[in-house]
Design goal:
Elements: H1 4-8, H2 11-17, H3 19-39, H4 41-59, H5 68-95, H6 102-135, H7 148-158, H8 161-196, H9 202-205
């Protein structure tokens, strides 16, 4: 039986199993940059955010019996959505800056992205932790409420199959909630971008050279 914690419980396993997401990210980024030159940010960015929301939605349907093939599929969709939305967005911002300020603009964007990512991980991690703890039945050992890893370790040590099943189900329910929250935020962002972003690309369709690491290797 395959579960989230079996996919992401160690660094090496995580690195191997998120390859589909990285592949989707690269494909989405390269495709999004080319589509932006033809269709503009107002079309490409909402499309990417909708694809991202679809990936989150698929992820939220992961069950106790889901195999890695299903997880790999929605990870790839997630990556494609991020690439379609993020790379054109960063390029669009850089295209509005004078050439002499492109370096500082790129550095600022990277800083904002990293800070935003850290805050997002902290916030969503708190949601997951709270949902996981609240999903455990009463009477479980206090240590099991700290994390799924602690619960799995404790269950294996004591041979408590009921604790293991309860912890897995609680973790899966927490992940479903996190993914649904992310999907809803992506849909809201897509609507806001479609409504408020100008329809024309920066500088009458001209795009600045991408400062994103996905496209600098071309």
């Amino acid at each position: 039986m395959l579960l989230f914690e079996s996919y992401f419980q160690n660094a090496f396993g995580t690195g191997v199993r998120v390859i589909p997401m990285v592949a989707g990210l690269m494909l989405g980024g390269l495709t999004g940059e080319r589509l932006t030159a033809r269709l503009g940010l107002r079309v490409v960015m909402p499309t990417g955010l909708v694809v991202l929301a679809a990936g989150f939605g698929l992820g939220a349907t992961t069950s106790m019996s889901s195999g890695y093939g299903f997880v790999a599929a929605w990870l790839a969709v997630l990556g494609a959505g991020v690439g379609l939305a993020m790379v054109p967005a960063m390029d669009g911002v850089l295209a509005t800056l004078p050439e002499e300020r492109s370096g500082s603009g790129s550095a600022t964007l990277q800083t904002v992205r990293q800070v935003g990512g850290a805050l997002g991980v902290a916030g969503l991690g708190s949601v997951l932790s709270a949902a996981y703890a609240s999903g455990l039945p009463e009477g479980v050992p206090e240590a099991a409420g700290d994390s799924i890893t602690a619960a799995v370790t404790l269950a294996a040590r004591t041979g408590n199959a009921a604790l293991l099943d309860a912890a897995r189900q609680a973790f899966l329910s927490g992940m479903d909630l996190v993914l649904l929250v992310c999907g809803a935020a992506s849909v809201l962002a897509a609507v806001l971008v479609a409504v408020f972003l100008p329809g024309s690309t920066a500088e009458d369709g001209k795009t600045a050279e991408s400062g994103h690491e996905l496209t600098t290797a071309r």
